[in-house]
Structure formats: structure tokens, C-alpha cells
Automatic annotation (TrEMBL):
PROSITE patterns for this protein: PROKAR_LIPOPROTEIN (PS51257)
Organism lineage string: Bacteria, Bacillati, Bacillota, Bacilli, Bacillales
Similarity comment text for this entry: Belongs to the bacterial solute-binding protein SsuA/TauA family.
GO cellular component terms given for this protein: periplasmic space
One Pfam family per UniProt: NMT1
Name of the featured protein: ABC transporter substrate-binding protein
Alphabetic keyword roster: Signal
Record's subcellular location: Periplasm
SsuA/THI5-like domain span: 44-253
Annotated signal sequence range: 1-22
Amino acid sequence: MKKRVRAGIVLFISMLMVISLAACGKDQIQKVRIAEVTRSIFYAPQYVAIEKGFFKEEGLDVSLKTTPGGDKTMTALISNGADIALVGSETSIYVAAQGSKDPVINFAQLTQTDGTFLVSRKKIEKFDWNMLKGSTFLGQRKGGMPQMVGEFVLKKHGIDPHKDLKLIQNVDYANIATAFASGTGDYVQLFEPTASVFEKEGKGHIVASFGTESGHVPYTSFMAKQSYMKKNKETIEKFTRALKKAQDWVQKQSAEETAKVIQPFFEDSDLETIETVVERYKSQGSIATDPILEEEEWNNLQDIMDEAGELPKRTDYKKLVNTEFAKKVSK
């Protein structure tokens, strides 16, 4: 009888330990909501981190939603609809200029050049930027990084975007490709994979890269509200570490392997196109190799914004950029 009682007690204690350990494990899982400004192959390391389980390895349960447009993405972050936003760093400057008491802080960089390409309606054997003079150029949304970089590059080549060509900026981002395919414009500024798809289908021809022309800028970064970062330092560090693992993986693996991993996020694109785009972005150094946002890049960003007349005021690097976690995980 005593043996049975002892056995029962042992079993009961064992069950309590299992339940306790399960509860502890559950507590260690941290939910993180990401709002991305668009779904893009440009963001390959983010999808790799999800698919390869790098976030899970850090104890993070990540959910991802696409909120098209920088304004919508930032609204989601500020209104607590998301914990972390993946969006252009210029948006944090716009928020700071409005006098926010809880500024949005850039803590991990994902892309380090512009991700758009100049696509011509006609095939051009030897392209020269002066060919744009007198043409109709279908650009991006006014005030957004693609358009600001576009104008910066045109001016770099001695072209006044408001005098030397007909600049169209009133087409919604989602309809730019459709407008060009329907016959609007001689040239268009497009992201991938649309640019490659157009080239494949004979609707346009890639003649130049705005990314290689503009130099390094913190084009897309992960950011969070200052209050969230103070309360969740461990979560931010784990998130950044998982991202670094993914960045390292993408750099080491072939474009084909990366394409296979991220294909579930791009069901409308064939594997060959995804591979082509990954290789193009890697070869021109658009995908950041580490999450550290350098001060020189930050200043270049503000120079581009200033040139476009969209910079509210210059903002100190240390005010809106925190490299503590990026540097720690990159050692």
C-alpha cells in the first residue's frame, strides 16, 4: 500500500514538473508583430529568417502583415497595430518632425541601396541618361524614397526632373506598372520582380539601376517605438540576432537556394524570376550584409531628401538610430 502511495506521489510530482516546464517554455515565447511596407524579394533575409526558423530559435513567434505604403505602415506602428515596422528610414524622420514624444527608432538595417530600376519601353543597346531629356517619365509617389532617389540620380546626371522631361507622379503605387504596360510613359521606375517580368514578357527593358547610382542609404530598416524598445530590449536583441543569421545565410547561399526558401511568399512569381531578382540585388550590394545602419548612410539619406525638397529638418543620427543591438550581434 505504501509503495502505491509513494508511486502516486512521484507520478503527481512528475506531472507538476512537466506542467511547470511547459508553462515556463510558453512564457519564454515572445510574440512579435511585423508590419512590412510592401511584399518584395528585396527583403529576402526577412523571409529567410521566418522560413529557416531563425526567429523561432530565438524564442520569437513572429507574425507578418503587409501594409502598403509608408504612411499606413507607420500608422500601424504608432497606433500599436504592430510592434516592429519594416519601412523606409525617411518615415522616422517625418514622425520626429511632427514632434512625437515617442520617436520611432531605426535599430536594424535590411536594405542599403535603392531597389528600383529604370525600365525603357524600347530596347536600348547603349543607354545614356541624357536619353531621358524630352521623354515622359513615370515615376514613384512624391515624398517616398523611390521618387526622391529617382530625382537625386537624374540631377546627378544633369537632368532637371521638373524641366527636362515630363514627370508623372499622380499614379498610385499599385497601378504604376499597369499604367506603363497600358502605354503611359517612355520610361518607368519599377521594383523587382515587376521589372524582370516586364523584360521577360517584352513589355519593357531594364537599362539602369537607381541603386548603383545613388550609393548606400538606409533604404529599408526595422524600427520600433522608443517606448517598446525600452520595455523589450531582450526581444529586440533576439530579433536582430535572427536577422543577422538570415543575412549571413543569404550571403553564403546561392541565389537559387534563397529563391527556393522564399518562394512561398511569392506564389505569383516563378522560381527562375525570383532567382534572377535575388542575384541582381546581391550582385549590386542592395541587400545589407549586417544590420548596422552607419552614420554616413544616414547623412546620405538626408542629403537625398534635402535635394528633393522633402527634408523637414536635419535630424541627428543618434536621435533616431540605435546600433547597440546590431553591433552586438554582428561581433
